[in-house]
Amino acid sequence: MSAKTRAVHIKGLQIGGGAPISVQSMAATRTQDIDATVGQVNLLHNNGADLVRVAIDNDKDAACLKEVRNQTQARLVVDLQENYRLAETVAPFVDKMRYNPGHLHHHEREKTIEQKVEWIVNIAKEHGTALRVGVNCGSVAPAFLEKYKNDHVKAIVESASYHCDILDKLKFENFVVSLKDSDPNKVIECNQQFSQRRPDVPIHLGVTEAGLLPDGAIKTRIAFEKLIAKGIGDTLRVSLTLPFDEKYKEVEHGRQIIQDVKDGKFISVPDFGKGLNIISCPSCSRVQNNDFVELAQQVKEVTQYAKEHKLTIAVMGCRVNGPGETDDADLGLWCGPNSVTLKKKSETLGHYGYKEVLDVLKERLNKIIDEKKLAEV
Question: What is the pLDDT of residue 285?
Answer without folding.
Answer: 57
